[in-house]
Each structure stands twice: as C-alpha cells, then as structure tokens.
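Next up, sample data.

:::
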Amino acid sequence: MTVQKVRWGIMSTASIAKRSVIPGIQESKRNIVEAVASRSLTTAQAFAQDLGIPKAYGNYEELLADPEIDAVYIPLPNYLHKEWTLKAAAAGKHILCEKPIALDAIEAAEMAEACQQAGVILAEAFMYRHQKRYTAIKERIANGDIGDVRAIRGVFTFNGAGNAGNIRFTKEWGGGSIYDVGCYPISAARFLLDEEPSAVTAHALFSPIHGDVDMMASGMMEFSNGVALTFDCGMWAEFRNELEVVGTAGRIVMKNAFIGDQSYEVIKGGQTEIIADDNQNSYALQADSFADSVLDGKPALFSMEDIVNNMKAVKATLESAERHERILL
C-alpha cells in the first residue's frame, strides 16, 4: 500500500531551504518535495535539478495553481511573509512559513485568520521546538526536578557582518538580529515557562553600515513570579547558541540550544547528568509533525494564538530597543 505523503512546493531558492528545510522534508517519513518556484525559471530549474525536485516554476503564482501541491514552505524575506501566506491560503495550500512569521502581531493575526477561514494549517518554522529534548526539559521543569524556576538565560549570535547585500540588513524588509535570531530564545522561554511575558526591555547596536538594523541586542523579558529571560542576540559577534534554565535546586543547560548537538545537562548539587538525545533531524521532525496535522487532522503542536503571541513579544523587543524604554505587553 502506498503511504500517503504531503506534497510540498518551495517558494524561493533561499539558502535555508536548500541547506536545511528541503533535506529535512526529503528525509522525513510523510512528506515529499514536489516543486520549487523562483522569480527566474532558469534559477528554479537549476535548483530543482540540484536537489532532485521534479517540477520548477518561474513564478510563485504557478506553484500555487498546481493542484498536485498540498503545502508550501515560504522562506521569502520577512516583509513578504504576509502577502504570500494570504495568497497560499486563498489557493487552499497548507503553509509552513519561516520565522519570524510576520513583521508584527497585527500581520500575524491577519495571517492566522485567513488560514482559519481557508481551513489550512499555518505553522511557524521554529524547527528546534520539535526536538524531543524540549518536551523532556519542559516536563522536568513542571515536575520540579530543578525546583522553582528563577531565571532563563538565552543567547544566539553569529558574525555575518561582512556579507554585503544580505537581506537581513534591510530594515524595511524586517531585517536585524532580533527578528533573525532573537526570536529563538524568546520563543523558547515562552514555551518552557508555558506563559506569556508581561514586559520587555532591550538595548541594541544599530549599525549605519548595515542599513541601521540591530546588529546586536541584549534584553530582559519579564514573566510572572519574578522570573525573567535575559538574552542577547546578534549578527556581528562570535557564534553562540545556548540556553540555561536556573532553578532553586538545579539548572538545565543546553550548550547547543537551537542548532547542533541535541544533548543537555542537568546540574544539581555540583553533580552533572548529561542526557544525550538521538540527534534526529529537527527539520524532518518539523515536517512530519506538520504532516500529522495535514494528513491525520491532529491539532498543530503550536496554535495560531502562539504564533501571534510570539510575534507580539518579538516586535515589542525591537520597539524597546528603538525607543530606549520598557515596553508593556
């Protein structure tokens, strides 16, 4: 018996699609990449040939009109996410949209409503949240394994400052480090604490030679019971991606919190327990979770409300840095 699979169309030949998302979909159990579209047919054809994709289109409209496409992945620049999500929803396609899903919570809410009206799945591409360790860590926290949570510390930085012409350096397109990598520790804290923040304060380096986007940012996001996420993110710093949850009786440390090795440490009373996960492809896990919703009707792991609330927190962080003030959420 043929196993039913979600047939994907990829909207653009972005590097994240080629490097990570497409290989993940191809490695997954319940998905297949059927087509890719670009503004240039020649580019799309070369991309498709390179990755073994059957169809190539010279524009996104043709991809959306293909009846053999069930779902689309949108890795376009941030400012285009809303436009093409709305068009994909109108075409009846399920949607995996690259993070951050929009430029603000208002856009995210419009996208969520359109997808609900069209009866299609909308998911934000935070692949790390599909790793087994995050569920396990959340359970440890809920069970009191490290006592009461007192603080979370998260960092995600890399040095891409010399990459001239990078779309991340265009402010009006949704560029900057808060949107690009700051959204990771913010979303992780919300997930692990299972609540929304009440306020955020951020400070950033806005670089004139990089389109005045935030090339580095540091901040504090307030949660209940005096708990705070302290974080920094950047596109002009040494590579780091770490997360630490500090409790009254111990702490949990992920030295590679968002990409890389999926092990984590539980440190209590001076003793360190290292939990080594099986390092499954996060992008494949994300695709199969998506397919469970499309093919089996299972509720999405992360709701439309979560999508909107995360965008609200991310946008408030950028506003705080721009306005030099604490922003209430």
Observations:
- The longest helix spans residues 304-323.
- The first strand starts at residue 6 and ends at 11.
- The chain has a mean pLDDT of 97.
- The CA atoms of residues 171 and 239 lie 22 Å apart.
